[in-house]
Amino acid sequence: MSLRALIFDVDGTLAETEELHRTSFNEAFAQAGLSWTWDRPLYGELLEVTGGKERITSFIERHGATPALDQQAIARLHQNKTSLYTGAVARGAVSLRPGVRRLLTEARQIGLPVAIATTTSRESVNALLHASFGPDGLDQFAFIAAGDSVPRKKPAPDIYDLVLQRLGLAGRDVIAIEDTPNGLRAARGAGIDVIITRSLFGGEVGFEEALTVLDHLGDPSNPCRTLQGRNIANGMLTIAALDGIR
Question: Is residue 9 annotated as a catalytic residue, yes or no?
């Protein structure tokens, strides 16, 4: 088998989390006495900027939002948003997308390392993994790169470069699973082939460099559809399919 590891993005890829992120931002704004409200179209626009603190900064700068918070205030606001989000995740507000648990189980059974490369906060990642897999959720992953692990966030390749360095692998040895053009660009910048799974806020264009674009990863009772690129047989993305798709 030529595939030596698998790398997952988190938000929109492991789970459909962005709507909960959006409502958690709005709740944090309200608790801080701010009149800001991010509806879905605006949030979709803001997702072009990766990182929650960076997203707030961009909103203030691009939309003239007031008050113009300094970086310390933005950090406090984002920390409260993260607490609201992780609390909701712990209460079962989100679940893994179709096919994710199956594919992770298959990788674990054959000893294929799986890592995470995401720009969401480490607290948010930990909350999702604990809620989805139990107390040992973090142990299922060979390495987790999250939040501020690197200075430049996606679409820069830094987060993927870090994961490859920690795994001791080259880009040609792995495949990444992403849901956004920024994620695709980051992985491709590190020399990694990419599978895209469409998500609520991931968009429908900008995936020309992906090996294939799926609506999700597929389960026996819920097969996936190939939307663009190379067809996935039997409606499920398997390790064998990943190894043979390049």
Answer: yes
